Amino acid sequence: MGGFDFDVIQRSLPYLFYEGMAFTLQLTLIATLGGVALGTVLALMRLSGQGALAGFANAYTTLFRSLPLVLVIFWCYFLLPYIGAWLTGADRPIKVGAFNSTVITFTLFEAAFFAEIMRAGIQSIPRGQAAAGYALGLTYSQVMGRIVLPQAFRNMLPVLLTQTIVLFQDTSLVYVISLTDFLGAASKIAQRDGRLVEMYVFAALVYFVISFALSQLVRTLQARFAVKR
Amino acid sequence: MEDRKRRGHPMKYNWNWGVFWEASPEGTGTYGELLIAGLGWTIVTALCAWILALAIGTTVGVMRTLPSKWANILAACWVELFRNIPILVQLFVWFYVVPELLPKAWGTAIKQMPNAAFVTAVVGLGFATSARVAEQVRAGIQSLPAGQAMAASALGLTLPQAYRHVLLPRAFRVVLPPLTSEFLNLIKNTSVGLTIGLLELTARARSMQEYSAQVFEAFTAATLLYLLLNVVVVSAVRALERRVAIPGQVGT
Hints:
heterodimer; A: mainly alpha; MetI-like fold; 8 helices; 81% helix; flat; B: mainly alpha; 11 helices; 75% helix; 0% strand; globular
């Protein structure tokens, strides 16, 4: 085995970060934004009081929260080409592309978790506020868009960010379909150069530093943004 | 013949639900039995890792509430370390790195274990989950009124006795619901074990897809089995909650 080889890490830094980490961060960012948007819609459906809408949102969140992300990644990887062909009317399964495929997978999956967070956030706003909005003649979208959701987001910001850290860590699972995210890049170098110890220790260290720094940031934000009551 | 038919209608997926009763090429039974065996490994791995996680997590969670600065710091470091590294990376470190760092004879012995993937998954998932269990146990202990610990010491109980007979039995009842969702998470996380060769449910569905090309049947079956497992665990915990409820307490 020999000593710990720092050189292999140094040599592969550009590849690890410009290829791997760039993919990981893009996926995290897009899936967070998409997941929060879709999750908010699901939470509104769940709380709409309309049987069919609420039932769908409930079934959606329960389904995705009961399944391992690895299985969902495989599902989407094989199913999306067929759905794409069906949508575009193509006569054979279309190529969705690895990046698009994973963005869709993570958005759909994480939306179930963001939906539960947003539901709690919306429910934390006193009913009287919405009632007062309607009494002033505001429409449903005005009440939600201007009164309820801004406060719900603010109350839930720490939880939403914590879920984003979870999402950041979850992106490493794209390894199972051989994509080059940060872990994928580290693993490819590790296999090529036979330097598994160095690359996996380094990968663990990088993930730790980023996640730990973000979670400390969340803690600071929580103290600063907490609504005084 | 079969192949040409498929190429003629590329959009048409050939459904074949009978595939579960066909023999799998591993020669040990049908595809259905292959999946059930995978479910068994999922359950066994999750249970073993859970025992480890509960043991370590309770210890670390208690340490965070002890009146000792060093115990607090050590426990906090434990939690942060295992919470901030993706589980897949943790498994790779246990599988590829740890055997290399141990004395040579030990490392070789570990690598030659016939069920190295299973042992690694249990240890890796158990340690990762222990950080989450520790946070729940700490929250449970801290949710108890301070008077409980004081009353225990006024009765002459030592600190270990106070934890054993007063604080922990109550704290565990408080955190039973969040611990249940950690256990459900652990069951789902066993699927990460497929990256180091653990033949659990998702891995079996994947290999069935590779051998039989019946991708959607395989994943549908795995999905239903995971949902079923979820329902069983949730109902079992409900029954447990009723059994251990303290009479007269709200919400238990």
